[in-house]
Structure formats: structure tokens, C-alpha cells
Amino acid sequence: MKLIIGLGNPGSKYASTRHNVGFMVIDYLAGILDISVDRTKFKSLIGEGFKNGEKIVLAKPQTYMNLSGEAVLDMVHWYKIDLKDILVIYDDMDLPLGKLRLRIKGGAGGHNGMKSIIYLAQSEEFPRLRIGLGRPEAGNLENIDFVLGKLSDEEAKVMKETIKEAGQAVLAVIDKGAEQAMNEVNKL
Predict the structure, then answer these.
(1) Is the pTM of the predicted complex or chain greater than 0.85?
(2) CA-CA distance, 129 to 102, in Å (whole number)?
(3) Are 30 and 47 in contact (CB under 8 A)?
(4) Is 111 a catalytic residue?
(5) pLDDT confidence tier of residue 110, bands split at 50, 70 and 90
(6) Of 67, 114, 142, 153, most Cβ neighbours within 10 A?
(7) How far apart are the C-alpha atoms of 124 and 121, rounded to whole Å?
(8) pLDDT exceeds 70 at position 172
(9) Segment 77-93, tens digit of pLDDT
(10) Is 127 in contact with 176 (CB distance < 8 Å)?
(11) Helix (H, G, I), strand (E, B) or coil at 109
(12) Are strands 54-61 and 44-51 parallel, antiparallel or unpaired?
């Protein structure tokens, strides 16, 4: 079983913001895997399906970003899943726009959603897929305003392709495991 969690903020106000790229990847995967992510459970919208006989759970926590750990921990306990079998997908300002980075463990890197998950799970030992946003131009916007802002038309074009690449990276994790997929994904 694999638990694939995209981080974001609930509600239409945040739907196309940079901070919601994790949700966007879950929506993309839901289409590819024919999984409806529409059940409310574990403080999340979830959907369950199968790929090559393996159960896949797609989840979009509805706790708001800073409390993502509450939803993630509820799911981990309910499904009795090892942390190595989850994959958290989230935005990262420290990567250039459109860049992907898959890791099998690591710190929060200043991301509040990841801080929440790491704190409540009491572990950094779980796979994560970071999606690069880049940073605002110097003096242009505060970080919080940047991540909660809408993608520009140019950024949206890049992100559309990045979300497809991220979706393929997740499928590689499901099929091959995070460690082997990491070697492929991080070459891009």
C-alpha cells in the first residue's frame, strides 16, 4: 500500500496558489489512476484505488498547511502504514521554478506543513517530493504573500508541465520504490 499526500490549503481562495501545487499533483494523479478524491476522512479529502494490484490512497489534507501533520498522522495510524510507504508532495521556494527533488528523508527546510508532519510523526524518515517555486524578486513580496499568491500566466505554463512530471515521478515511486525512483527523478 502507498499513501500519497499532496499538501495545500482548502477552499477556492487558495485553489490556484503556489502553495497548492501538492493538491494539483493529487488531482492529476486522480485522473491518471481513475481515483475519485472526494471522501472526507482523516481531516482530508481522500480516494482509494489500485495500481498493478497495490492499494493506493490519494489524500489532500483539509487542515490548512500549518496543521498538515494532524491529517497525515490520522491516516498513518488508521492504515497502519510504515512511514517509508507514504509520499508527501509539497512546494519549495528553495528550488527553481519547475524543478523536482525526490528524497527518502530529510528536514522541513522551513516549510510549515512539513514541520507539522515531522513534529507529530516524530520522524524525518519518509519520502517527499519537492516542487520548485523559485523565490519572489528581491524586495517584491514577502514569502507568505508569494506562496499564497496565484501563479502568473508564465509560471502556470511551467507548472502545468511540472505537475505532469511530478505525477510521473509519483508513479515511479509506486512502481519501483522511492530510492530507485529518486535516481531517475533527480536527473531531470
Answers:
(1) yes
(2) 4
(3) yes
(4) no
(5) confident
(6) 114
(7) 8
(8) yes
(9) 999 999 999 999 999 98
(10) no
(11) coil
(12) antiparallel
Q: Identify the H or E element spanning 166.
A: helix 153-176
For the chain, the domain total comes to: 1
Asked if 61 and 71 touch (Cβ cutoff 8 Å), the reply is: yes
pLDDT given for residue 188 in this prediction:
57
Among 2, 19, 60, 101, the one annotated catalytic: 19
Q: Which residue has the higher pLDDT, 143 or 159?
A: 159
CB atoms within 10 A of CB 128: 25
Vertex 21, ends 20 and 27: CA angle to 5°? 95
Residue position matching grid coordinates 527523478: 185
In the chain, the amino acid numbered 146 is F
The parent domain of residue 168 ranges over 2-185
Counting every residue written for the chain, the total comes to: 188
- Would you state the pLDDT for residue 119? 95
Residue 171's CB: how many other CB atoms inside 10 A? 17
Rounded to 5°, angle at Cα 183 from 32 and 167: 15
Distance CA 188, CA 184 (A): 7
